[in-house]
Amino acid sequence: MLDASEGYTTEDGRKIGGVVMEMKNITLRFGGVVAIKDISFDIREGEIRAIIGPNGAGKSSMLNVISGFYIPSEGEVWFHGSKRPQMRPYEVARQGIARTFQNIALFEGMSVLDNVMTGRLTNMKSGLISQALWKGKAEAEEVANREIAEKIIDFLEIQHIRKTPVARLPYGLKKRVELARALAAEPKLLLLDEPMAGMNVEEKEDMSRFILDVNDEFGTTIALIEHDMGVVMDLSDRVVVMDYGKKIGDGTPDEVRNNQDVIDAYLGVAHD
Amino acid sequence: MSDQFLFATEVFINGLMAGVLYALVALGFVLIYKASGIFNYAQGVMALFAAMTLVGIMEGQVPFSHIINAIFGTEVHHFGWHVPALLAILLTVGVMVVFAWLVQRVVMRHLVGQEPIILFMATIGLAYFLEGFSDLMWGSEIKTLDIGLPQGGSFLIEDMTAGLGSDNFYGFFIDNLDIVATGIAVLLVMALVAFSQYTKQGRAMRAVADDHQAALSVGISLNFIWVMVWSVAGFVALVAGIVWGTKSGVQFSLSLIALKALPVLMLGGFTSIPGAIVGGLIIGVGEKLFEFAIGPMVGGATENWFAYVLALLFLVFRPQGLFGDKIIERV
Amino acid sequence: MAQMQSGAAGKLSLPALLQRNATQFGDSPAYREKEFGIWQCWSWAEAEKEIEALALGLINLGVNEGDFIAIIGHNRPYLYWAMVAAQSVGAIPVPLYQDANAEEMAYVLSHCGARFVIVADQEQVDKVIEVQDQLHQFEHLIYLDPRGLRKYDHHQLHEYSHVQAQGRAAYDEWITDLKTRREKLNYDSTCVMLYTSGTTGKPKGVVLSNRNIIESAKNASEFDKLGVDDEILAYLPMAWVGDFIFSIGQAYWTGFCVNCPESADTMMTDLREIGPTYYFAPPRVFETQLTSVMIRMEDAGNFKKKMFHYFMDHAKKVGPDILDGKPVGFMDKLKYKVGDLCVYGPLKDTLGFGNVRVGYTAGEAIGPEIFEFYRSLGINLKQLYGQTEATVFITVQPDGEVRADTVGVPAPDVEIKIADNGEIFYRSPGTFVEYYKNPESTADTKDPEGWVATGDAGFFEEGSGHLRIIDRAKDVGKMADGSMFAPKFVENKLKFYPDILEAVLFGNDKDRCVAFINIDLTAVGNWAERNNIAYASYQELAGHPKVLASIQEHVETVNASVAQDPMLSGCQVHRFVVLHKELDADDGEMTRTRKVRRRIVEEKFSDIIGALYDGSLQISTVTEVTYEDGRKGSISATLDIRDAAVASIATKLAAE
Fold first, then answer.
1. Nearest CB to A107: which of B201, B211, B219?
2. Residue-wise burial string across B3-16, b where 16 or more C-beta atoms lie within 10 A, e elsewhere
3. Inter-chain contact B217–A99, Cβ cutoff 8 Å?
4. What is the DSSP secondary structure assignment for residue C166, as one 8-state letter?
């Protein structure tokens, strides 16, 4: 397997760095139900890491553990080389982990630009008083943040809806706005919860291109969960496969594709 | 111009002024409702508490003097100093922030995710607790509040307008306090709008109001925002308390103005700041004009019920209010 | 020689004009582009520096005099600079249509033998790389937006800003060379080569000299009194001669500012923000805008709707006269002023026409109601007639002599003659040099005396001296009984209905005419929505009986109006069919500038034409289509054929 300290080079020649996040023996229980059972894996700097599995495999639960929405019953989360204490979701976000949601959680009443700007909130430092006086630092900060927001709006090609209230947008564009908001935080780790769910083929292709471009352009480390196998295999560098809360495979798309357990899980072989 | 018309105009202007005060109280409700979905029954009592605290601090009253004296057998009532109004207001703001933090810490935090009706009940409890607590802290006697706001009829306006009608028209009678209150209300609304639109805390507040989950995911602490919202509502309560307290004395009935805010909210909608203002003005003007025109025919005192009847009509024909979000039940 | 010197004040090339502008208008804005939500601006002095850096970079990369440099992308200042930088080093810029597919691109690139290609983004890079193997002379590709291109092999690939940086770094090394090359340019050296899409056959490379461009730009600018303070929005394809004349020729001659929109999707917002004073749009754009205004008015409140119609009726009555400076009654004038305050002004602002002083439309005939609508609002919209080979201008409408059915009087310095068969010929300083590597076509089009055949048939109107266009000369045919067959004439009348997008008339050598019709999905879709008519596709909507009935009504009204004209009354539509698909450039049925390729349509749908003539009531057909990504598929449909009432022939009436 891989050396923990060193990275590897992908097929297309990208250098993948050291471990950014490591999940150690994570178990998650809701009452008596076990959603995740003793799962370990890592995410490396600059890679696109996918977590896949059939519906109900525990993928979303895993993402919620990483982003702090769920607290694991057992196990440890290591981020940037140190063990993460129990954290609330907003504290996780402030550590530089941004995410999107499967069902889209945008601020519907705000414009696209305002939504993207909320992604900058954790990066804004000036106090209420200097903001009230709109003095030097606060103004410069607002301008700098707006610049970053605009770069992302440009990057994701949503200039034409900049001032449109999100509630009026079609589904596909909302997904893109949500990605923009997550990117605005300049995250160290970007979590995407079923980014292609509910999209048509063309929208899926667009989204795949954006995900690859984000990784390529900003070097963002991305972890995504998805149940559409085809899309994931093309996108990701390494894949974790989950089924019934357990990890049944972990490796490059090719390795995973040839893994008998994975094939069984996807073909629906009965569990005993 | 006929005198009748001038009288009506005077009533109209006075109605506007009264409406501003209603709007002021309603604003506090809207703020908390928008950000957390809680209908804060205690808003009126908060105004009472804020006004009492302000008076207490200004006059150098010893808080909880009754208990202290009862336990220790002492006779302390006053520190013997007077605090200047501006400083006292700042200190009171501090007290309201502490209060907001306590409410969040002790009550609301434990009720996250509960039904709205539970949260509403909690604020009713809070209201009664706060009412008793203020009495205990500052005593229950009626106090006068004077932070130097001008009062009494404006002679300037009276003189300027006296020539408009015939001899038995003496000019418009408009209370100086009402004029100042209007000014304060306008400033307050402008400040609130600037705060919510142009500061990062304001942006975070709007974000929380819109979607909790999304707000968390961009690193906004819900607790912090809620403390902030309760503080801002406390500040609005203080402003309302100052104006109403100056007008009619700081006493228990102050907490009842919250009941007047209800029809205002039904008119304007629970989620709209402009709605609270317009609603307040409509109620203010409506009830004064109604009393002026119809009151004498039905034996007067229409001001007591006019607002509620109007609100009732609105509930039937436009339940979301003039500016509120459309109520759509998703199945 | 004397004419040459005075004609352009001694400035004999665009790079020379650039030098003049950089000193004379140094601080006034030359280019603006909205990026990251803000209008970025370059003054003439700054633009000159940018162009110089790129030119030095191009020399550094090995561009020789006489090389062809292809330029592909949407309107961006950088790409306009690339054209002038290319000229500065003695190379010839060849702008290409950005939506051209790889095959079309390969043809043009290999035909001109471009050694260098400058493109906007990854999409265009991919297209060029795809056809790279077919291009023998191709060497280097320069791209503007680095996005997505990090992992590409950079042996032949260069980022625009790097080329500029290298140019700046090598300033001392190449600046003398650059100056020498710039000074060698004269009035007869090639300014640009533009490929015409052409309705038939392969595109032809039209070579235009500095004389062509500068003389045409100068004449047109003086004709409309354009100056350094004017503003235009550059949004039409850079490969089109009109954009070259407006955004480069006239901009360099007068020094006015060229504004580039943020993206194609934000065009309307950008138009509003810039508020151009000089504006060009094909009739289609004006049509779309009018449709969207009307739709919004349908949805508006009662009061607003009433006010709109009340004042628009008044505007229709007196607006055009006020615009033309004709005498109008005082009360009418006052009412128009009130209307301007309440309706026309705000409407012009939302449309982005608030500041337009001179507006043009051309390319196709514009519907009289559409034309009148804009003119009645007080927008000085005019028509011109031109083509690439003439460097745009053949005829123009002078202020105060504007009508929907003519294309104006000969432009300054343009001579026009009309041949016996009705074909229009012209001769002017804008007349093109040649078709590149195609002496036969050149000789066919331009005779030794310099007269160019337009291929259009038309006549000068008695009295006004305005030119009226009937149709393409080769499309004007004869029907079986010998009467004139002018399809465009009828098609345009049909297309003036908002719910008809396209119409194709057949009838050459036949005894009667039949027509294909495309409905306008926006207009008809909107109508369907308001009338609760559900539809899943274009095809379904196009076959809806109610749609067919309303189209039939239009056809019959048109027939009645065609019957009025004794020469053309034989062209009435006897039978028609509403096609199951939109005619599309991707399927070769139209040119990229959206002109119908008549012959291809005729071949492709021969079965339907057959059915139109044999009297059958229905026809089942299968049609091949090309999707956006190049894949092919087919759609099958059964189409209803309708008979239309024909008015009695006017000639007979006249004879009696």
1. B211
2. eeebeeebbebbbb
3. yes
4. H
Residue A1 has pLDDT above 70, yes or no: no
Angle of CA points C184, C190, C194, to nearest 5°? 155
The pairing of strands A221-226 and A189-193 is parallel
Touch between A and C (at least 3 CB pairs under 8 Å)? yes
At A127 the pLDDT is 63
- Are C488 and C475 in contact, with CB atoms under 8 Å apart? yes
Q: Which of A11-25, C53-67, C599-613 has the lowest mean pLDDT?
A: A11-25
Give the helix/strand (H/E) hosting C256. Answer: none
At residue C655, the pLDDT reads 38
Statement: the pTM of the whole predicted model exceeds 0.90: no
Q: Which amino acid is at B88?
A: A
Domains and CATH numbers, chain B: 3-317 (1.10.3470)
Q: Phi/psi class of residue C509: alpha, beta or left (left: φ > 0; alpha: ψ in -120 to 50)?
A: left
Fold of A8-267: Rossmann fold (3.40.50)
Instruction: Please answer whether residues A86 and A179 qualify as being in contact, where contact means their C-beta atoms are separated by less than 8 angstroms.
Output: no
Nearest to C515 by CA among C500, C528, C525: C500
C149 contacts: CB under 8 Å, gap ≥ 6: C122, C125, C143, C157, C159
- Collapsing DSSP to helix, strand or coil, C429 comes out as coil
d(CA A182, CA A180): 5
What gap in Å lies between CA C244 and CA C95, rounded to an integer? 9
Task: Assess contact for C275 and C246: CB atoms under 8 A.
Answer: no
**Domain ranges within chain A, ordered by starting residue:** 8-267
Q: Between the CA of residue B294 and those of B131, B299, B302, B312, what are the distances in Å? A: 36, 9, 8, 19
Q: Which sign, positive or negative, has the C-alpha torsion C473, C476, C477, C482?
A: negative
CA distance C340 to C348: 9
What kind and span of H or E run contains C384?
A: strand C381-387
Task: Express each pLDDT in B76-89 by its tens digit.
Answer: 788 877 888 889 99
Cβ-proximal residues to C128 (8 Å cutoff; 6+ apart), any chain: C72, C105, C109, C117, C119, C138, C141
Say if CB B225 and CB B117 are below 8 A apart: no
Tokens in use for B206? 């709007």
- The contacts found for A128-137 with CB under 8 angstroms, 24 or more apart, are A128/B199, A128/B201, A131/B198, A131/B199, A131/B200, A131/B201, A132/B194, A132/B199, A134/B198
Kindly identify which residue of chain A lies nearest to residue B221, measuring between CA atoms. Answer: A90
ipTM of the complex: 0.86
C614: exposed, middle or buried (Cβ count in 10 Å: 0-12, 13-18, 19+)? exposed
Q: Residue C444 in 3-state DSSP? A: helix
Would you call C204 helix, strand, or coil by DSSP?
Answer: strand
Q: pLDDT for C68-119, tens place per residue?
A: 999 999 999 999 999 999 999 999 999 999 988 888 899 999 999 999 999 9
Q: Which helix (H) or strand (E) covers residue A222, if one does?
A: strand A221-226
Tokens describing residue C556? 């019959």
Nearest CA in chain A to B195: A132
- Interval C561-571 mean pLDDT: 77
Q: Which domains does chain C have, with CATH numbers?
A: 11-280 (3.40.50.12780), 477-655 (3.30.300.30)
Residues 209-268 (B) with a CB less than 8 A from some CB of A: 209-211, 213-222
Residue of A94, A118, A181 to mutate for B, most B C-beta atoms under 10 A: A118
Q: What is the pLDDT of residues C285-334, one digit of tens each?
A: 898 888 888 888 877 778 888 889 899 989 988 888 888 888 888 888 89
Q: At what angle do helices C330-339 and C302-323 cross, to 10 degrees?
A: 130
Total residues belonging to chain B: 331
Q: Is A129's Cβ below 8 Å from some Cβ in B?
A: no
